[in-house]
User: Fold these one by one.
Assistant:
Number 1:
Amino acid sequence: MPEVDSSFLSQFRELHLLPRTIYAIGAALFIAALFRRDNILGSCGVGLVFLGVAGNMLIDAFWTQEGKPRERVWRAGLVQMGLALLFAAAAFWLAYFTVSSHPLIP
């Protein structure tokens, strides 16, 4: 019978340290936005989540999980990183557009 890690955070163990930190901050902002019903905070949180995923894909494209450089660049990881960066840019643009179109001071 395979050993199963029942920890909730076990799904994040494949993320590297910096992308994991960025991902956690983005997730916290997104969850806070759900409680505050704040679209700007939510889209910034989603943008940070995608930025963390893109950073992890960039690291995985050039390095193995053991910390050794790859012999060949993982091209699919670079494509996935590009898509994640596009989604992050779209989320940050949405936050900027929301702020610029609605003045904060009435």
Number 2:
Amino acid sequence: MFAHSRLWTKIVTSIRQFIQDTQHWVMEGILAGIEDSTKEMKDVNEMVDKFRDEFKSAYQKHVSTDGEIDWHGILREING
């Protein structure tokens, strides 16, 4: 009976260790994903900022002094 109890204790301990290891493994994956997406977001933000600057340069005549964009005017210019 005592051997059975020790076996059960070893099994439970192994399962707990497995769960803890899995939690750490999952957490590492989450942290790596956050880090990667943060780097990508920086690249995306830079691209969006560049697009905005190029848009302003190309279509400034369609932007009023208060910042309103004449989208229809832009479409007429694009479509001819």
